[in-house]
Amino acid sequence: MTTISLRIPDSLHKTVDEIVEREGMTLDQFVMLAIAEKASAIATENYLEERAQRGNRDKFLAALSKVPDVDPPDERDRL
Q1: pLDDT value, residue 36
Q2: 77/69 Cα distance (integer angstroms)
Q3: What is the pLDDT, as a whole number, of residue 25?
Q4: What tens digit of pLDDT does each residue of 38-61 get?
């Protein structure tokens, strides 16, 4: 495991202390979860950007053209 020394504003520390006390977790658990959540969000964004680059509009439109045109739409599909 790695130890990290971190400087944060007192006001943020107070807020986080209140949260961890209310949630019944340690400060270490909170920081670890926050880092994991942010890392996951960035990894997901990168994956979606890479996947979008592989997309092909013509193939998408060809697949969409195979979907039957239903008028009026099913009740469950209405906005």
Answers
A1: 98
A2: 13
A3: 97
A4: 999 999 999 999 999 999 999 999
Do the Cβ atoms of 33 and 16 come closer than 8 Å?
A: no
Task: Compute, in degrees rounded to 10, the torsion defined by CA atoms 55, 57, 60, 64.
Answer: 160
Summarize the confidence of residues 69-73 as an average pLDDT. 81
Q: What is the DSSP string of 22-75?
A: HHT--HHHHHHHHHHHHHHHHHHHHHHHHHHHH--HHHHHHHHTTS---SSPPG
Q: Is the peptide bond before 72 cis (omega within 30 degrees of 0)?
A: yes
Amino acid at 74: D
Q: For residue 73, is the peptide bond before it cis, meaning its omega torsion is within 30 degrees of 0? A: no
pLDDT of residue 75: 86
CA torsion sign for 69, 70, 76, 78 is positive
